[in-house]
Structures are given as C-alpha cells and as structure tokens.
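seq:
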Amino acid sequence: MNAQCPMPNSQSTNLPTSQSTNSQSLALFIFLLSLYLLTFSGRYHSSDEMSMLAVTDSLARRGAWDIELLRWMGEQQGSFGPDGHLYSRKGIGTTLAALPFYWLAVQVERIGNVQAAMLTNGLVTALTAVLILLFLQRLRYGPGVSLGAALAYGLATMAWPYARYLFSEPLAGLGLMVSAYFLLRFRDRRDRLDLVWAGAGLGLALLARLNNLIVAPFLGLLLLHYLDRPPSPGTHHRPRQDFAPQRRRVRRGTMGFLPSLSAPSASRRCVQNLFRDCLGPVLL
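struct:
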C-alpha cells in the first residue's frame, strides 16, 4: 500500500476573502469610532490646537492661510510674513483634514465649528486601526491576531487620548500606515498604482509633521527590497523587468538621502529629487 501524503493547507497562506475583510474592517471602524465619540470633549486643550483651528477658520471663511485670530498671542504659535500677517508654523495636514468638518459647521448654524473640527482625529485614528488590521492580514497573520493588534492600538496606546485632540500626530501615523500598507500590497501585486498611494501616504505624513522626513529613506529601502525580490506566488503582477528603471532611481535617491539627514536643506533637496525621479515615471 502506498501511503498518501497529506496535502498542505492552502488556506493558511491565502489572504482572507474580500467580503470577510470588509466586514471586519467596517465593524472595527464603527466600534472604535463609537468609543472615541463617547469620550469626545468637543473643545480644544492647547495653543497648538488653537493655531491649527485658526488656519482652518481662515480657510473656511476667507480662503486665507493667516492666523490673525491669534495675533494677540504674538509669535508664540506663528511668524509674521512679509505682508504683515501672522502665519502658523504648524503643518497644514491636520488643518486640511479638519477643513471639511469646519466648513460644514460654518454653513450650518446649529453645528459648532470647533466641535465639528475636533471630530477629525477620531476618524483618523479609527482608520489607522483598520489599516493595521489589513496590514497584518496581508502579512498572513490570522484574523484573531490581526484584530487583537488593531484593537490594542486603538484602545491600549496613546492613540485613544490623541483621538480627542486636534494634534498632528494621528494624521502623521495614518499617512505612514498608508505608505507601509500600499508598499506591502505592491510587493504582492506589482501594481504601479500602489506606489502612487504609498507616495501619497508619505506626503500626507509630511504635511502633518515635516519631521517624518526621516522615514522616507527607510521606506525607499523597503521599496528596493520589494523590487529586488520575486512577486508573491499566485498574484497578478507586472513583469519584473518593467520596474528596473524605478529600482535604479529609488536606489540613487535613497542612497543620496541617507548622508544628508543632518542637513535640513540638503534633505529637502534629496526628497524632492526622490519624488521627481521615482514617482514621476510611475505616473507616466
């Protein structure tokens, strides 16, 4: 008699079905957002939040970028421009994220503008937890582990307290998570659009906080690693040789960026070159 070898369990290496992933992601988002709303304060707590709210107010009402509402604070939260107006030194990412909520509140009298803007980071933090769930599932972790890690982030870290404030850290975290997730998806699918989304995530993180610039070369190294390895089996992807020019550009941009981290002006030039040389050809 010939003994039959057991077949490997292919389900352990496959990604969860789209329907189950969508249901789990939606449930996680609603659950976390509900908890954040239960602890929602609806008021600002620091001058940092006031600075970003002042820019949001100027944009919503006048289409301007100044923080003349805080002129009485002097240069505590801003700097005077050549036109004599006071401008915030904060990143514009959180301001732009809060702008739709603030603008809606300006149009509707019964909605408080500050209260509406303070909803921003609750949504951002819940979305970040969903991306953590999707990221771990794409790494082939089980649904229990993935969901547990996402809940741990949303409930057992500083993410929950920060969801109540209008600080820039939650949006920066979301941007970095978007970049990491779509780079991982590019590893599996070899789709140029994933690179665009990864670049957009990094751009969002930089708009929120410019000091996230230090992460750019490490994301570039991760992209190089994915470009140099064969695609995951059983996935639809472009031929590997299609990405040879991008691989050379990413390597040149990343290696040129690393020595310049100590020089801010040089770092900015390297990032500009990295985006021009790497993302530009991807969009063509």
